Amino acid sequence: MTAAAPLDLLVMGGTRFMGRAVVERALARGHRVTIVHRGSHRSDFDSPVTEVLGDRSDPATLSALRALGDRFDAVVDLSAYGAEQTRALCAALPDVPRFVHVSTGAVYAPQPTFPWPESSPLGPAPLWGGYAREKLACEAALRELRGERGVTWALRLPYVLGPRNYAPREEFVLNRLLDGAELLLPGGGAALIQFADVTQVGTACIALAERPPAPALAPAAPADAAPADAAPADAAPAASGFQPLNVATTELVSLAGFVALCAEVARTPVRTRPVGGGPTGTGNDVFDAADCVFPFPNDSYVLDVARLAALGLDLPEVSVREMIARALTALRADPERRRWRRTEAEKTWL
């Protein structure tokens, strides 16, 4: 992808995992970056960034952003988990021309056929409880408040993997394998799941932030329709309005297959046992990542990425095996993350 003209970008979040990947990609592309964060994690990037310490729930933070609003070419929002958070940011920055919101595939209503394109019926997915409901509410707020003001992208992601993941999915499996512990698989772990690598998310966010809105007279694409002849990111502007986009790899892995890949990468034996309790392994209808039997529910989750391919965003190619290998390298280098204990949900089966 050719270099874009330097932009002024606002990143909500920016010091951890996906946010960090977004900032690093932006700096590598020569952009000027402002990050908003609470200060609970260090900002130690190789290039300087402007920091606003605060939270969008704080009127003083919103006032500071409002005062800076005219300078921003695009916003990348990684930290909106409720409609009011989205509304507050949109009110503070009503005229920013490009807005990238990090959403989730959990906004779709589960369908019996796969994969799910952006035009799939919206749910949210009951398995993801309040998280899915609020993420869908964020998208609804963007549709309402952003309207035709530039272009608004909603990146619908599957499970995101990468070193030092704040949702320790890879580490959950790797730590148990490295210590010879048995892994419990809800329903035997036959469901097929899909991933995005953290570097792919960072690249996609910045590529979309760089893509200018179409001229005002250009017709807007339907909100949930993928253009049939979308051109590469460097060749065409984006239609104005709300644009959902699935971002994921095409590689599919079962839960049991994910364990097998982790064992191959870590060169450890595998000890697994199928358990009941429905897709969560706990008998609960909602998956609880903080107290789970396994870090993914036994429920197939596959997104259609045809539109992503048509847009030509030039994402890095990363296999699931590579994602696991990177996570393992980071895990072995961090003794604190090698300390683990069984969840209460696991203990009920042991």
Summarize this entry quickly.
The chain is of the alpha/beta class and 350 residues long. The chain is built from ten helices and twelve strands. It folds into two domains: 8-158 and 196-246, NAD(P)-binding Rossmann-like Domain (Rossmann fold, 3-Layer(aba) Sandwich); 161-194 and 251-302 and 317-347, UDP-galactose 4-epimerase, domain 1, CATH 3.90.25.
How are the secondary structure elements laid out?
Elements: E1 8-12, H1 17-28, E2 32-37, E3 50-53, H2 59-68, E4 74-77, H3 83-92, E5 98-104, H4 129-146, E6 151-157, E7 159-161, H5 169-178, E8 183-186, E9 192-197, H6 198-210, E10 241-246, E11 252-254, H7 255-266, E12 272-275, H8 306-311, H9 320-332, H10 344-347
Parallel strand pairs: 1-2, 1-4, 2-3, 4-5, 5-6, 6-10, 7-9, 8-12
Antiparallel strand pairs: 9-11
Describe what this molecule looks like in 3D:
This protein is an alpha/beta fold. It folds into 2 domains: 8-158 and 196-246, 3-Layer(aba) Sandwich (Rossmann fold), CATH 3.40.50.720; 161-194 and 251-302 and 317-347, UDP-galactose 4-epimerase, domain 1 (Alpha-Beta Complex), CATH 3.90.25.10. It is 31% helix and 17% strand. It is built from 10 helices and 12 strands. The strands form 3 sheets. A 7-stranded parallel β-sheet has the order 3-2-1-4-5-6-10, with helices on both faces. A 3-stranded mixed β-sheet has the order 7-9-11. Helix 4 links the parallel strand 5 and strand 6. Helix 1 (17-28) packs across helix 6, helix 3 (83-92) runs parallel beside helix 4 (129-146) and helix 5 crosses helix 7 (255-266). The longest helix has 18 residues, at 129-146. It starts with 7 loop residues before the first strand and ends with a helix.
